[in-house]
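Following up on my earlier thread - several people asked me to post the actual chain instead of describing it. Fair enough. Here it is, all 527 residues.
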Amino acid sequence: MSEKETFISTMQQGYTFEGPALILGGAMYQGECMTHSYVQVPLKMLNRHGLIAGATGSGKTKTLQILAEQLSLEGIPSLLMDVKGDLSGIAAASAGHPKIDERHARIGIPFQAGASPVDFLSLSSEKGARLRATLTEFGPILFSKMLGLNDTQAGVVAVIYKYCDDTNLPLLNLADFKKVLQFITAEGKVEMEREYGRISTTSTGAILRKIIELEQQGADQFFGEPSFDVDDLCRTDASGKGMVSIIRLTDIQDKPKLFSSFMLQLLAEVYATFPEAGDLQKPKLIIFIDEAHLIFQEASDALLDQIEVIVKLIRSKGVGLFFVTQNPADIPDDVLGQLGLKIQHALRAFTAKDRKAIKLAAQNYPDSTFYAVDELITQLGIGEALVTALNEKGIPTPLAHTLLRAPQSRMDVLTPQEIDAIIARSHMIPKYNRTIDSRSAHDILTEKLEEARQETFQEEIRNQRETARKTSTRKEKTVFDQVMSNPTTKQIGRTVARELTRGLLGVLGLSSTSRRSRSSSSSRRKR
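Reply from S.P.:
Thanks for posting it. Predicted structure:
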């Protein structure tokens, strides 16, 4: 058997499975595609996660598009991060092209154009169903990471979360957190220090400045209600195709903390919400995380541990994660070791550092007797990739230089009018593009502070009235005493008393004289 025949036999044996599988393309040997030597991925192993890596312009986005539309055809929904704004075309069928037909003829599969059912989601002002979460759902670790806090400040945030839990203060949005900060540094300071210890005003001031900075980046649009229900990511359309949910992220490319924190919160929510599913014949959901290096960049050890746990355990929920990045080195080794499917597009060696990185990247793939991997990585053309997957027994398949199939959907973006048409018929827009003003920490503390102010005001009024009454009484008594103790007043009083006495005595004397006079006159008349 020739080396070529050995290659074909190896590929056919390595990529032949009992259950359903996705066809990614055809295996290549010495630059030639071996027709009908399909490179496939078993559906049941897609929850073992994956990696799509390669330099800019090497075809990563189109590979992502191929996977999403093939998953949709199998009834498997997916979530895509559209950072560059070039994934919307999956909602429209390809117009076809002679080069596409030629490519598929080399692979040995017919080309059939088709569109996938799509829902657009948004974290900001982009068109689509609004993705929101409450601060309580976010948790102190992710919120601290989003703010870029140091360990001391992150500890303060954790204490504030604990205080809000203990006092039943719902943290829904940034306004709630700012109100709690204001309260614990003023009216509630004594209570806070008594129960949880002293909190430095320097730390709270730094946290407040970070929150204001985050608000200026538009993050206040993300926090609030209604919270996004991750079960809505697992929908199919009327024909049974899996829904492709595309998060439009073109306006937050310069806000990596917001993006990475959202992704981690979403993964944590999926892990906490989805029931245990075990090994399914096909996954419930596949999540493609584009620009994956943003998640791991500058992550704390605690956060990395949390990510690794989620990646290891979310498989049992029937969920697969696919990280899309330029170099496998962007992914921590503990996470990279969990990825069953690896699709490596071309890497470019312009510097000595690049060549070293390529040699390290080559070591992430199985040894091959057919390829010099470190050399081939730099020679891959657009639409070509090195592929290795897990077979149905969990064993890595042979490394295959693959000519990838073309997307069945449009390779270009949708027009604004086409996007508006999808938005208009979306069932997600009425559900999530509304605002719910629930009673939260801001309302409760505002009422509490207002009640305290009213009580203080009423107490002040009572105190002022009591002071005024006492002052008025003292003044009246003092004036009377001063008047009565004045010599002139005393002389006037004696004079008035004497005259009154004289008057009274005069009246009395006059009355006595008059009685005697009347008595004498009466005696004379009798005689």
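Confidence is low (pLDDT under 50) at residues 504-515, 517-527. That should answer part of your original question.
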